[in-house]
Amino acid sequence: MNLNATLLAQFVVFIILAIFTAKVVWPPLVKVLDERAKKIQEGLTAADRSKQEMIAVQKHVQSELAKAREEGQKRVQEAETRAQQIADDIKHDAENEAAAIIAQAKAQAELQIRQAREELRAEVANLAVKGAEQILKREIDAKAHADLLNKISAEL
């Protein structure tokens, strides 16, 4: 075999192989590589978009948490205010009730004092009548002298 012929045959086979590879094998291979690069780029874009959305959601969550805390503090403050108002109302009602009980007790005491005075007047009048009876040594008719006895008891 001739070295030149072998080299020429190898060169022709290489050219045919290169043309075959360039026409048949290379385009699908480039297409697959382009599709893979496109998918990777889409994945990176989606990851960036997801990252931005996650940041926005985190900001929104922080905002909502701050609003919830503020609302909770507001409700606690309102509850404390309402509790204080209820306590003040109860205290005021208790003071009013105590004042009413004291007024009622004073009225009852006044009534008892009046009743005791009336009883004392009646007893003093009876004692005066008995004393006068003994002084005069005669019996005084209480019914006949009712006006006089009423006048005496009013003076006492």
TrEMBL record:
- What species does this protein belong to? Oxalobacter paraformigenes
Residue spans crossing the bilayer: 6-26
Q: How does it sit in the membrane?
A: Single-pass membrane protein
Q: Does the keyword Nucleus apply?
A: no
- Which keywords has UniProt assigned to this entry? ATP synthesis, Cell membrane, CF(0), Coiled coil, Hydrogen ion transport, Ion transport, Membrane, Transmembrane, Transmembrane helix, Transport
Gene Ontology CC: endomembrane system; plasma membrane; proton-transporting ATP synthase complex
> Could you describe the subunit structure of this protein?
F-type ATPases have 2 components, F(1) - the catalytic core - and F(0) - the membrane proton channel. F(1) has five subunits: alpha(3), beta(3), gamma(1), delta(1), epsilon(1). F(0) has four main subunits: a(1), b(2) and c(10-14). The alpha and beta chains form an alternating ring which encloses part of the gamma chain. F(1) is attached to F(0) by a central stalk formed by the gamma and epsilon chains, while a peripheral stalk is formed by the delta and b chains.
Coiled-coil region: 69-126
Q: Which compartments does it reside in?
A: Cell membrane; Endomembrane system
Protein name in UniProt: ATP synthase subunit b
Q: Which family does it belong to?
A: Belongs to the ATPase B chain family.
* Molecular-function GO terms, alphabetical: proton-transporting ATP synthase activity, rotational mechanism; proton-transporting ATPase activity, rotational mechanism
Keyword Lipoprotein on this protein? Answer: no
What does the UniProt record say this protein does? Component of the F(0) channel, it forms part of the peripheral stalk, linking F(1) to F(0). The b'-subunit is a diverged and duplicated form of b found in plants and photosynthetic bacteria.
PANTHER family from the xrefs?
ATP SYNTHASE SUBUNIT B (PTHR33445:SF1), ATP SYNTHASE SUBUNIT B', CHLOROPLASTIC (PTHR33445)
User: Which CDD domains does the record match to this protein?
Assistant: ATP-synt_Fo_b
Q: What is its main location?
A: membrane
